[in-house]
C-alpha cells in the first residue's frame, strides 16, 4: 500500500486489509512557533494605593535582591505585611527595570507550586508546555537559566511549609533520570533572583542563607498612624484615637486594615473611638471585631481572611508539624503576653529562693547539677519548641535574654483556637497550676519574687476555672494577690479582688473552709486601712469566731485574730472594750508564743498605748519596761528582716521616747526606714510610714525644723505615690501645717491646713473623723498665732461637726470643748471659758474618764478661775488636780511639776497681794510646757496583716 502523507490539517490511519502485525505511530502536529513576549510584571495583584512604605525595610529587600543569583526571604507573622512588601517591590522593579521579568507563584503546596510554573510557561509561551508528558518544571527551569531570555525575579509567596519542595513530583512518562525534588527546579542564575515570603524562618532555612532572611516586625506607631489615615481619609477622627487603636492592634497591618474596613462600612454608627472602646471590653468582643468579614473586606491585601483566621492557619501548621511547640504556645497564651519568663514554662523550683534566682537569670537555666540524659533531652526538646515559635515570629526574646513576649493578637487568637479545639480548659488549668506553684504568700523576703510574677498573677485572676480543685488554687492565687496589693498600699484594686475572691471561695468551699477564713481576714485588714472600721470589725469578728470554733481559744490563730479585733476596737475609740480583750489574752498568749515573740511585743505595746491614752501611766510604764527589756535581750537573735520585727521598731521607738531615750528612739526609726526602703523602695507606703514616724518623733521632741523638713519630703512622696487626695497624703499635709505654725510660718500654715481640710471635705465628707480633727487643728493654729476669734469660729465648726458625728458626750467632743475654753481665755472671755472647762469636767465624770487630758483640763479650769479672781476655787481645783495627778500619773510626772509651780506662784501672790501676768488672758497651751506632753503612741499600722492568715495560706494545697 502506498504511503499517504498527512499535513497539519489532516492526520490519521487508513488500512485497506491486513492479516499480519502492524505498528502504528501517531505523531502530534508540530507546534507552531509563537512570538516570544516582552518582559512584563506577571503578578496577580494591582498596586496598593494605601501602601505605606517602610523605607528602611524596602531598601533592605531591594539591596539584597539586587545581587547576582540572590535568594532572599521575607519572614514574619501572618498579616504583618510580607506580601504587600513584595508587591511593592515588584512594581518598583517594573518601574526601574522595565526589561526585567517578574514572576509570582503562590507556593503553599505542590499543587499551587505546579500551577504557578504552568502559568509562567504560558506567559512565556515555552515550546512543549502543552505536551502532557513534558516536565513543566524542567521547561521553566531551563528557560530561566538561559541568559538569552533576559533578567528575571521569581517571587514565591506564602511558603509556610517547604517540605513539599523536597518531594519528587509525578511527571508523566519521565524516567528515573528526571525524578528530582522540586527544590532542584529553583534555578541558580546570575541574571535572576528569587524572593520568598514565609511565616517561619524554618521553612526557608534550607533555601536561603541565614544572612538573607529579613524579619518583618509590626509597624512603628508613625507608619501605623499613616496607614490608618489613608484607610480612613473620609472619616473624621483624632490622631490620639488612631494611635491608641493602632497600639491596641499591635500595629499589625492586616489587623489595622481590617479595623479600618469595619469603621468605613459602619462609619455612621462606628467611630474610631467607639471601635477602640469595644475592642478593649473583652476577648469575646475582640473576636467578634477581628473575625468580621463582609463585602470587599481586604481585596487590596490579597486575602479575604481575617487576622484571626490568618493566625489560626499558623497554629494548625505548628500542631501538625511540631506538637510540642503547639503545647508550649498554648500554655504561654495565658501569661502576660509582654513578659513570659523562660523558667515559668519549664521548671518547678523546690524553694522560693531558687524561684527568685531562676526568674532573674540571664539565659535559660540548664540543670548543671542534675545533668541526666533524660533531663538533657527535655532541655533540648524545650529549646527546639521555643525555636519553632520564634521561627514563626509568634514570640520574640527580650533584649535582656530573660523572657519572651508575644503580640496581644497572637494571644487572643491562640485562646480562641484552643476553644475551637476544645483544649481551652485544659491549658487554663495548667496555667493556674503553674502560677499557684510559683506565687508565694506575700512576706517581706518574698517581695522581689511577688513583683516579678504579679503581671502573670493578674492574668490568672481573669481566668476563673470551673473545676473545684482548680477553683481552690485560683482562690489561693487571688488571696495572695490581694495580700500583695495590700502590702504595696494599692487598696483600690486590693478590695475589689479580695471581695470577689471571698465570694468565690465561700460559694465553692463553704464558710468554714480555711481559705474562706483567710480571705475574710484579708478583707477585714483592707477595710481597716481604708478607715472603714465598722466593716473591718464585722469581718474580723467573723474570723475570730471561726478560729475559736474550729481551733479553740488558746490556738495561735485565735489569739492573733483576737488581738487584731481589739486593735480595730482601739482605732474606733472603744478603749474599754479593746483593753478588756487584750488583758484577757495577755497571759495565754505569753504561754503559747513565749515572752520574747514579736507578737507579744505587739500585744504589750498596744495595751500600753491604751493605758497611756486612758491616763493609766503606771500600768503603761510597766508594760513598756517589759517590752524594752525583751527587746534588748532578743536584739541579737531576732530576725530583722521580718514584718513583725520591723513593725515593732515603731512602737519601741515611741516607748523609748516616752522614757526620755531620744537617741534610741531615733535609731530604731532609722533602722526601720532603711529596711523598708531596701525591701520595697523609697515610695512604698511602708517606707513612707517609717519616714512619717521619724517626723512625728521630731515633732514630739519639738525639733520643728527637722520635723518640717521630713514631713515635707513625706508629703511630696505620698502625693506622688498615693495621689494628692489619698487619706495618708492629706493627714501629712495637716502635720506639715502644724510644723509651719510652730516655725511661725503663719501664711504657709494656714494655706496648707485649709487646702487639706477642703480636700478632706471633698474626698471624705464634712463629717469624716479626720476632717473634723483637722478643723480642730486649724483652730489651734489660729490660736497659736494669736487669732483668738478665728480660732473660736473654727473650733465651733469642729464642735458642730463632732456633735453630728458622734454626739456631744463623747471623748473627742470633750477635746474640742477644752480647746474652745482656751480660745475664749485667749480673748479674755473668761466667763465662757470657765463654763466650758467646768462642762468638760462634768462630762468626764459622767463618761468615767480620768486621764492625763482630763487632768490638764482641770489645770486650765483652775487657771481660768484664778483669772476671774475666784482665788479660793482656783486653789481648790489645782490642789485637787495635783492629788489626782500623783495618784494616776506618778509623782515624778512633768504635769505635777506644772501644777505645783502654779500653786506656789499663786500662794506667793496671795501673800504679797500681787498678781502675775500669768493670770491674765492669753492663749494657754499646756502642751508647750513640756515636750513630753501630747505624746501619742502610733495607732495600729494600717499596713499590718493578721499573721495567722499568712500561716494558713501557706498550708492550702
Radius of gyration, taken over Cα atoms and rounded to an integer in Å: 42 Å
Main sheet: strands, sense, barrel: 6 strands, parallel
Shape descriptor: elongated
CATH superfamily of the domain at 41-215: P-loop containing nucleotide triphosphate hydrolases
- What value does the average pLDDT take? 80
CATH architecture of the domain at 41-215: 3-Layer(aba) Sandwich
Determine the fraction of residues in helical runs and give it as a percent range.
Answer: 55-70%
Number of helices: 40
Q: Could you write a compact summary of the structure shown?
A:
It comes from Penicillium angulare. By secondary structure, this protein is mainly α.
Task: Walk me through what this model shows.
- It is a single chain.
- By secondary structure, this protein is mainly α.
- Among the domains are: 41-215, P-loop containing nucleotide triphosphate hydrolases (Rossmann fold, 3-Layer(aba) Sandwich); 221-305.
- Helices cover 61% and strands 4% of the residues.
- It has 40 helices and 9 strands.
- The strands form 2 sheets. A 6-stranded parallel β-sheet has the order 1-3-4-5-2-6, with helices on both faces.
- Strand 8 (396-397) and strand 9 (403-405) form a beta hairpin.
- It is elongated, with a radius of gyration of 42 Å.
- The N and C termini lie far apart (101 Å).
- It comes from Penicillium angulare.
- This is NB-ARC domain-containing protein.
- Pfam families: TPR_10, TPR_12.
Amino acid at each position: 500500500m502506498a504511503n499517504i502523507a498527512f499535513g497539519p490539517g489532516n492526520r490519521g490511519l487508513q488500512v485497506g486489509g491486513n492479516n499480519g502485525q502492524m505498528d502504528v505511530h501517531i505523531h502530534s502536529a508540530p507546534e507552531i512557533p509563537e512570538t516570544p513576549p516582552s518582559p512584563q510584571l506577571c503578578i496577580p495583584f494591582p498596586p496598593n494605593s494605601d501602601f505605606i512604605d517602610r523605607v528602611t525595610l524596602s531598601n533592605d529587600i531591594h539591596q539584597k535582591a539586587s545581587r547576582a543569583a540572590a535568594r532572599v526571604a521575607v519572614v514574619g507573622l501572618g498579616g504583618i505585611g510580607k506580601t504587600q512588601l513584595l508587591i511593592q517591590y515588584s512594581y518598583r522593579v517594573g518601574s526601574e527595570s522595565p526589561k526585567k521579568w517578574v514572576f509570582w507563584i503562590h507556593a503553599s503546596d505542590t499543587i499551587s507550586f505546579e500551577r504557578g510554573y504552568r502559568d509562567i510557561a504560558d506567559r512565556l509561551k515555552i515550546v512543549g508546555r502543552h505536551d502532557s508528558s513534558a516536565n513543566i518544571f524542567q521547561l521553566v527551569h531551563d528557560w530561566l537559566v538561559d541568559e538569552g531570555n533576559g533578567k528575571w525575579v521569581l517571587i514565591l509567596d506564602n511558603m509556610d511549609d517547604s517540605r513539599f519542595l523536597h518531594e519528587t513530583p509525578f511527571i508523566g512518562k519521565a524516567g528515573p533520570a528526571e525524578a528530582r525534588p522540586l527544590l532542584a527546579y529553583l534555578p541558580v542564575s546570575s541574571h535572576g533572583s528569587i524572593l520568598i515570603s514565609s511565616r517561619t524562618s524554618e521553612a526557608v532555612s534550607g533555601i536561603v542563607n541565614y544572612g538573607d532572611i529579613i524579619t518583618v516586625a509590626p509597624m512603628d506607631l508613625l507608619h501605623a498612624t499613616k496607614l490608618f489615615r489613608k484607610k480612613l481619609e473620609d472619616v473624621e477622627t483624632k490622631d490620639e484615637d488612631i494611635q491608641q487603636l493602632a497600639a491596641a492592634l499591635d500595629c499589625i497591618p492586616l489587623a489595622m486594615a481590617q479595623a479600618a474596613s469595619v469603621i468605613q462600612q459602619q462609619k455612621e454608627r462606628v467611630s474610631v473611638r467607639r471601635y477602640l472602646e469595644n475592642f478593649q471590653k473583652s476577648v469575646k468582643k475582640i473576636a467578634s471585631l477581628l473575625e468580621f468579614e463582609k463585602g470587599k473586606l481586604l481585596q487590596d491585601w490579597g486575602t479575604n481572611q481575617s487576622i484571626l483566621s490568618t493566625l489560626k492557619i499558623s497554629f494548625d501548621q505548628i500542631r501538625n508539624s511540631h506538637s510540642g511547640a503547639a503545647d508550649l504556645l498554648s500554655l504561654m497564651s495565658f501569661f502576660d503576653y509582654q513578659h513570659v519568663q523562660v523558667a515559668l514554662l519549664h521548671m518547678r523550683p523546690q524553694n522560693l529562693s531558687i524561684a527568685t534566682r531562676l526568674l532573674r537569670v540571664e539565659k535559660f537555666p540548664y540543670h548543671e547539677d542534675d545533668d541526666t540524659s533524660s533531663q538533657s533531652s527535655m532541655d533540648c526538646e524545650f529549646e527546639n519548641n521555643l525555636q519553632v515559635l520564634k521561627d514563626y515570629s509568634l514570640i520574640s526574646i527580650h533584649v535582656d535574654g530573660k523572657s519572651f513576649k508575644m503580640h496581644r493578637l497572637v494571644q487572643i487568637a491562640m485562646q480562641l483556637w484552643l476553644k475551637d479545639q476544645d483544649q481551652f480548659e485544659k491549658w487554663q488549668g495548667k496555667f493556674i497550676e503553674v502560677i499557684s506553684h510559683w506565687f508565694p504568700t506575700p512576706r517581706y523576703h518574698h517581695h522581689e519574687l511577688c513583683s516579678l510574677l504579679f503581671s502573670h498573677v493578674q492574668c490568672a485572676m481573669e481566668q476563673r476555672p470551673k473545676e473545684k480543685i482548680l477553683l481552690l488554687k485560683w482562690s489561693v492565687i487571688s488571696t495572695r494577690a490581694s495580700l500583695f496589693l495590700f502590702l504595696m498600699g494599692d487598696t483600690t484594686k486590693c478590695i475589689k479582688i479580695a471581695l470577689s475572691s471571698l465570694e468565690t471561695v465561700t460559694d465553692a468551699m463553704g464558710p468554714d473552709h480555711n481559705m474562706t477564713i483567710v480571705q475574710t481576714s484579708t478583707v477585714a485588714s483592707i477595710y481597716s486601712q481604708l478607715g472603714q472600721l465598722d466593716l473591718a470589725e464585722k469581718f474580723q469578728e467573723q474570723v475570730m469566731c471561726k478560729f475559736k470554733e474550729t481551733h479553740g481559744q488558746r490556738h495561735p490563730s485565735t489569739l492573733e485574730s483576737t488581738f487584731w479585733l481589739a486593735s480595730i476596737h482601739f482605732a474606733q475609740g472603744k478603749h474599754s472594750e479593746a483593753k478588756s480583750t487584750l488583758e484577757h489574752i495577755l497571759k495565754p498568749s505569753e504561754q503559747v508564743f513565749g515572752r520574747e515573740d514579736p507578737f507579744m511585743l505587739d500585744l504589750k505595746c498596744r495595751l500600753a498605748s491604751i493605758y497611756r491614752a486612758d491616763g493609766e501611766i503606771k500600768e503603761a510604764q510597766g508594760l513598756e519596761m517589759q517590752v524594752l527589756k525583751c527587746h534588748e535581750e532578743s536584739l541579737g537573735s531576732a530576725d530583722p528582716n521580718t514584718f513583725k520585727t520591723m513593725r515593732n521598731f515603731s512602737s519601741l521607738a515611741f516607748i523609748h521616747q516616752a522614757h526620755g531615750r531620744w537617741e534610741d528612739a531615733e535609731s530604731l526609726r532609722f533602722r526601720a526606714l532603711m529596711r523598708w526602703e531596701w525591701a520595697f523602695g523609697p515610695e512604698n507606703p511602708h517606707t513612707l510610714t517609717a519616714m512619717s514616724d521619724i517626723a512625728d518623733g521630731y515633732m514630739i521632741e519639738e525639733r520643728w525644723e527637722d520635723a518640717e523638713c521630713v514631713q515635707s519630703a513625706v508629703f511630696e512622696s505620698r502625693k506622688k505615690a498615693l495621689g494628692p487626695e489619698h487619706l495618708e497624703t492629706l493627714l501629712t499635709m495637716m502635720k506639715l501645717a502644724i510644723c509651719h505654725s510652730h516655725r511661725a510660718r503663719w501664711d504657709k500654715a494656714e494655706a496648707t491646713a485649709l487646702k487639706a481640710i477642703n480636700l478632706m471635705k471633698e474626698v471624705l465628707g464634712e463629717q469624716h473623723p479626720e476632717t473634723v480633727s483637722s478643723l480642730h487643728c486649724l483652730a489651734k493654729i489660729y490660736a497659736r498665732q494669736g487669732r483668738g476669734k478665728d480660732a473660736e469660729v473654727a473650733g465651733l465648726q469642729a464642735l458642730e461637726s463632732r456633735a453630728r458625728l458622734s454626739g456631744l458626750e463623747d471623748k473627742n467632743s470633750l477635746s474640742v470643748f477644752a480647746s474652745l475654753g482656751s480660745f475664749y481665755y485667749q480673748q479674755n472671755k473668761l466667763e465662757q471659758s470657765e463654763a466650758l472647762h467646768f462642762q468638760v469636767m462634768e462630762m468626764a465624770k459622767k463618761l468615767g474618764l480620768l486621764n492625763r487630758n482630763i487632768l490638764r483640763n482641770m489645770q486650765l479650769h483652775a487657771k481660768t478661775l484664778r483669772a476671774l479672781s475666784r482665788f479660793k476655787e482656783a486653789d481648790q481645783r489645782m490642789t485637787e488636780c495635783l492629788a489626782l495627778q500623783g495618784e494616776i500619773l506618778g509623782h515624778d510626772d512633768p504635769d505635777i511639776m506644772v501644777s505645783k509651780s502654779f500653786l506656789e506662784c499663786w500662794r506667793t501672790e496671795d501673800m504679797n497681794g500681787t498678781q502675775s501676768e500669768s493670770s491674765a488672758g492669753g492663749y494657754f497651751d499646756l502642751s508647750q510646757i513640756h515636750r513630753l506632753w501630747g505624746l501619742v503612741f502610733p495607732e495600729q499600722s494600717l499596713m499590718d496583716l493578721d499573721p495567722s492568715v499568712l500561716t494558713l495560706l501557706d498550708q492550702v494545697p
